[in-house]
Design goal:
Blueprint (H helix, E strand, L loop, with lengths): L1 H6 L8 H5 L6 E3 L5 E3 L7 E7 L4 H17 L5 E7 L4 H8 L5 E2 L5 H10 L7 E5 L5 E3 L2 H8 L8 H16 L3 H5 L6 E3 L5 E3 L7 E7 L7 H14 L4 E7 L4 H8 L5 E2 L5 H9 L7 E5 L5 E3 L3 H7 L8 H16 L3 H5 L6 E4 L4 E3 L7 E7 L4 H20 L3 E7 L4 H8 L5 E2 L6 H8 L4 E2 L1 E5 L5 E3 L2 H8 L8 H17 L3 E4 L2 E15 L6 E9 L4 E3 L1 H5 L3 H20 L6 E4 L2 E4 L1
Parallel strand pairs: 3-4, 4-5, 10-11, 11-12, 17-18, 18-19
Antiparallel strand pairs: 1-2, 3-6, 6-7, 8-9, 10-13, 13-14, 15-16, 15-19, 17-21, 20-28, 21-22, 23-24, 24-25, 25-26, 27-28
């Protein structure tokens, strides 16, 4: 085998007998142990499937390949040969038992390794497809099967080009049928398995809901609520879910509780629509108008914020909503933000209620945060320090904690470390405030001015970079700070050498934002920077001996890291860097 591979490393036409046999073996095997002569593959297209049981993506792809293989059995000459990368015979047998095709025996590692080298397999799953004469048609079989399914057969470049042209034609002449119907299916399904012909949906406003049912998100209950409201009102619309799941049992279990329609799980149209609509995030809800044309690429955020009021999702409706939002912003007061029905108070960490009316006329920071969020815990000491400094200068200032904690105990524990006020845990105002200020990640600080209007939603960054000096967080104050820094920079040296970066000189540079490699704090504006090494020092770290402070900072960083290892993000959130985002 090795000699043969050395002789023909560049050839794209192969003799299957030489390729798949060894000196001791001229057969392949089925998962029941039966032997099949390699010569029986003559005149067939053959897919060499490089895969392994330990590989997650392989486990996800194999059911798709099984589906296509079974569909092609009745009318095509196509065979698949499993080339295992498993580590032991037991794993091979267990994985192969799920496959209806052939395999190279696990014991023949020489042939398997040789095929890996010959076809330059650098990652799995990997599917090489050969034509009836052993000519290599494509080494992108995985992508073709995922995106095209059985429609990709006979997997020739000409067929793939034809399908791409059909897609372009479908975009030019888009209809509900061109979006949802495939060669083998002209229906969608209900949760009870009943088939609904796509033709019955024509003339309706259709929402295509791209979803992973195993991906828990607060959006789905909101969409169910909107769906039921619109159906109750008799609106001519429907939702069709586009499932992106790989596991049918979990999909069926979740789908049972959903009132809308769906494409069948693992249907190749799902992958096609991901590509067609250039899916980039979940949840995504594409709106198809009654004429079959795309009205909007994603109304998930609009549904989350406005619910049923966003229907029918036309440009005119969104213009109307924007006008109402503009009026709301212009007339915003602290009470319109914080008072809801009979909830007209906030609380201190001693449990004492403070009426919102008592806070009118003050500068307010709304602090969206949670105990389980490592970036929130890391930011809190900085905010507490700024809070005390600002309060010492201006008593007409307050912070209000808005919690995303898991439970009352976590809320109480976290809130007990804060010197300011909070909305009670579980208060409905948390949801309305999150929607109003479009909270996608925490920690987040929203500054409300004395008139009750929003000053900035980026107060967290201002506190991080400037501390209490950023108060009252207005554009005018930021301009003053920039002018102060410019005057200070005029007196600083243009370059310095520093013990923390002995390799090169550090040059005074105006920077949009950076992380100080001395104290590990965030910086903005001026830095002493080594461009070659991307090394930054705050001016205060570069110009003053801060060794003792840096040691203290290291201790603090170590404490925070230790805490982080003990905490996991709340379900539905993920933490990345210095922000935790809604998943």
């Amino acid at each position: 085998m090795e000699d043969q591979l050395k002789e023909v490393p560049e050839l794209t036409t192969h003799d299957l007998q030489s390729l798949l046999c060894s000196s001791e073996r001229d057969f392949l095997i089925r998962n029941n142990g039966h032997q099949v002569k390699v010569e029986s593959l003559k005149g067939k297209k053959v897919g060499l499937y490089f895969s392994a049981s330990w590989c997650g993506p392989c486990q996800s792809f194999t059911p798709k390949l099984v589906k296509v293989y079974n569909e092609l059995l009745s009318y095509s000459k196509f065979e698949v040969v499993f080339v295992s990368a498993d580590e032991d015979n037991e794993s091979f047998n267990s994985y192969f038992s799920k496959m209806p095709w052939l395999a190279i025996p696990f014991s023949d590692s020489e042939t398997r390794d040789g095929l890996d080298k010959l076809f330059d397999v650098s990652g799995i799953p990997h599917l090489v497809i050969l034509d009836e004469n052993g000519k290599e048609l494509t080494n992108e079989g995985v992508e073709i099967i995922k995106e095209r399914g059985v429609e990709g057969y006979p997997f020739t470049p000409e067929r793939i080009a034809e399908l791409k042209e059909q897609e372009e034609e479908a975009k030019r002449n888009q209809s509900l049928k061109s979006i949802l119907v495939s060669q083998s299916r002209d229906y969608v399904i209900r949760s009870d398995g009943k088939k609904v012909p796509v033709v019955e949906l024509e003339g309706k406003t259709i929402l295509l809901f791209f979803s992973l049912v195993t991906y828990k998100h607060a959006f789905t209950p909101k969409l169910v609520e909107v769906y039921r409201e619109l159906r109750k009102e008799g609106e001519n619309f429907e939702i069709v879910m586009i499932p992106l799941d790989d596991e049918e049992p979990s999909f069926k279990k979740e789908f049972e509780g959903m009132p809308w329609l769906s494409l069948p799980i693992l249907d190749t149209t799902c992958e096609k629509l991901v590509r067609y609509f250039e899916l980039s995030a979940l949840p995504t809800v594409v709106v198809i108008g009654p004429d079959g044309k795309t009205l909007h690429p994603n109304v998930a955020e609009a549904i989350e914020e406005h619910g049923r009021k966003a229907y029918p999702f036309t440009p005119e409706k969104f213009a109307e909503i924007e006008e109402l939002e503009k009026i709301k912003r212009e007339t915003q007061t602290l009470e319109s933000v914080l008072v809801s029905e009979d909830c007209n108070f906030v609380i201190g960490n001693d449990g004492v209620k403070v009426q919102v009316s008592e806070l009118v006329g003050k500068n307010i920071l709304l602090y969206f945060s949670a105990h389980w969020c490592p970036p929130c815990r890391a930011f809190l000491p900085k905010l507490i320090e700024a809070y005390h400094e600002i309060k010492a200068k201006d008593d007409k200032f307050e912070v209000i904690f808005i919690s995303s904690d898991r439970d009352q105990t976590s809320f109480d524990e976290f809130f007990s470390t804060m010197p300011w006020l909070a909305i009670p845990f579980g208060d409905n105002r948390k949801g309305s405030l999150s929607r109003l200020f479009k909270i996608k990640g925490i920690p987040m600080l929203v500054a409300i001015g004395p008139t009750g209007k929003t000053v900035t939603t980026e107060a967290r960054e201002l506190i991080t970079y400037h501390g209490a000096d950023a108060y009252p967080f207005t554009e005018e104050r930021l301009k003053e700070i920039e002018e102060q820094y410019k005057k200070m920079a005029e007196e600083w040296p243009k370059k310095v050498r520093h013990a923390l970066h002995k390799e090169h000189e550090l040059f005074l540079t105006e920077r949009v934002g950076y992380n100080c490699d001395g104290c590990n704090g965030m910086g903005r504006g001026w830095s002493f920077w080594c461009k070659e090494c991307d090394f930054d020092l705050h001016p205060k770290c570069a110009l003053v001996d801060k060794d003792e402070d840096m040691d203290n900072a290291d201790e603090i960083k170590g404490d925070v890291k230790g805490e982080d290892e003990e905490k996991n993000p709340k379900e539905g959130w993920s933490c990345d860097g210095d922000v935790c985002y809604k998943a």
